[in-house]
Amino acid sequence: MDIFDKLTILSDAAKYDVACTSSGVERDGEKGSLGTATQAGICHSFAADGRCISLLKVLMTNVCVYDCKYCINRRTNDTPRAAFTPRELAELTIHFYRRNYIEGLFLSSGVIKNPDYTCEQMALTLEILRNEYKFRGYIHVKAIPGADDALIQKLGLLADRISINIELPSQDSLQLLAPDKSKVSILRPMGLITSGIKHNSTEIVRYKNAPKFAPAGQSTQMIIGATPDTDFQILKLTQGLYKKYGLKRVFFSAYIPTQSHSLLPSIDTKPPLLREHRLYQADWLLRFYGFDANELLDEQHQDFNPFLDPKCNWAINHLELFPVEINTVAYDMLLRVPGVGVKSANRIMVARKTGSLNFEGLKKIGVILKRAQYFITCNGKMAEGLKFNNESILRALISEKSSDMLLQNQPDQITFLNNLKPSREDLMKCLTGQI
Questions:
Q1: Which helix (H) or strand (E) holds 274?
Q2: Is this model's pTM higher than 0.85 or not?
Q3: Strands, DSSP E only, in 145-272?
Q4: pLDDT tens readout for residues 252-268
Q5: I want to staple 161 with a disulfide (CB 3.0 to 4.6 A). Which of 70, 131, 216, 409 is the partner?
Q6: Around Cβ 325, how many Cβ atoms within 10 Å?
């Protein structure tokens, strides 16, 4: 099998890994070296300056000794197999880079032989790139749970970002669908990576040229929809990972059925894309808006309302806190107003130092008044002609985009949205989370 046949197989096998994001690293080129890294987006993303830049996203091998039921590369699946040698993959990366096809490498792998051997092959690939080719571009590597600490340490010193996929939200789910893995084997190296990253700041202060361990941090990925785990369980785990391990991102991947199995959703099940979208919205609220997982969901409401984004859903369930006066409300509460983002909240804080704001001024600042007008007053007054009741709020908060996604993913649950005049009963069921 030639190298391009391998590339065809192993790049296709890598498509289920969604953990690609902006690099978070600034590294200038040097004389005698190859490449740079910037904080702009990667993997077919648009950078801040408008460039579309990309990574070579590939597996070291799709040969795997594990038999995870949800994985297309499991050992019992009948699929074409291939494996790169470290030299082949390093040369392919440089070959593509020199032709301006890519700006970096995203490297994951199946488990060939055992975790240690797999990590050794990945580390050798990175060593060839960094030390032989003097490659200074961005590298994101997926470490293998169960590998020796020394190998995790080596990968962290060679890569910009290192991550370990937690895969499934609970130990019970792992035991059921991925019996070769355990939560301990995943969380232990996460802790090791966290310690290495924290050590960075101390060493850089003491020694300016000290090697940096995973300077772009670590991330992880969870598969959504393959198991009965609820949104509440997933969000609680996500919050815990951020707090304990200081992750840069938790990625959510809607499960795509690839085989029929009694333990998995049927093969004709559509990927839960809207659910994935709601979890990303909630993740944003945890990281940038000061929300707690227990505020967004609880034991009685374990899954997100498909009709409303999590912030809007929280607001209509806490109408006793609204409306707030836009010219005096504290910043923390301002962030909780639907239609007000982090940027617009900061603009409001600056603008009101020089005068009072009205609805027209808020619109110019970037506030989405279609949502915000139900939850704010300007100089003690609500928007002119506003009809303030649960039905009108609900109509305003159900975005066209959400409706379209629902139609595509859950048509049986949103029949009433096809009618321009949903009944009061339907509206109230939606408000209370019954549908």
A1: helix 273-288
A2: no
A3: 161-163, 218-224, 249-254
A4: 999 988 778 888 899 89
A5: 216
A6: 13
